[in-house]
Amino acid sequence: MTMPETERLDAMLTRLKLTAIRERLDTLLDEAARRELTLRETLAYLCEQEVAHKEQRRIQMGLSIARFPFLRTLEGFDFSAQPAVDPGQIRELACGRWIANGDALLLLGPPGVGKSHLAVALGREAVKAGYSVLFTTATALITQLVQAHANGDLEERLRHFAKPKLLIIDELGYLPLEPGAANLFFQLVTRRYERGSLLVTSNRAVSEWGEVFGDAVVATAILDRLLHHSHVITIRGDSYRLRAKRKAGLIKPDTIHHHDQVVR
């Protein structure tokens, strides 16, 4: 192929945004020749490589936008250590039908039992399935809403958190919430109600959310919407971190028992 023809092909591939084919054309064609593919098979092979490339880029972009604080996968979750968690139920949730339906998912239990791990892992599966996802802690979320309310930008912040198909709110109840948090959280839940899914992790039972928000009436209204179409998983058991320290002999069993009583 002459240079002008090479440049012309490169220009057409660029215009069609066939990045993978353009960047790896010689390698791909060599591989097709090695396999002795027909012209039709070669075209299909080139298209497969392009689709795979675009899919990988889409997933990477989605994971970047989601802002997960760490890498966690379902394969890395130790189901044997948490018998209260049904692997079949988690695999079903990983399919994302609850997200398509706009349902809520609550992961409840004491600290260290894997709630955040599952939240991030399910969020990653949602990204792979094509859903937009955003991860935030409850403290960071409320802080932003309170500041936006004070600055007159609440509507813009509510739109920001209402936009993703799945919003993950981690660690609700771990730290005291700012004054006015209940009403602002209620506005967000109402904005997303039956339109976008919420995944919330909390160390407090839903019966204690009145204390978490400091307003039993608003907490009831929040739960009324969250629980209308919801999946609730309560995880019981020892903390992974404490169990590891116990195995290493760093903490005595009675110390763990006392700590468990405190955090629960």
Question: Summed up, what is this model?
Answer:
It comes from Halomonas alkalicola. The protein is an alpha/beta fold and 264 residues long.
What does this structure look like?
It is elongated, with a radius of gyration of 24 Å. It has 2 domains: 63 residues, no CATH class; 167 residues, 3-Layer(aba) Sandwich (Rossmann fold). The chain is built from 13 helices and 5 strands. It is of the alpha/beta class and 264 residues long.
Secondary-structure element order, as H and E? HHHHHEHEHHEHEHHEHH
Instruction: Kindly provide the radius of gyration, computed on alpha-carbon positions and rounded to a whole number of angstroms.
Output: 24 Å
Instruction: Tell me the helix content.
Output: 55-70%
Class by helix and strand content? Answer: alpha/beta
Tell me, rounded to a whole number, the average pLDDT. 90
Count of domain modules: 2
* C-alpha termini separation: 72 Å
CATH level-four homologous superfamily name of the largest domain: P-loop containing nucleotide triphosphate hydrolases
Which strand order spans the largest sheet, edge to edge or round the barrel? 2-3-4-1-5
Oligomer: single chain
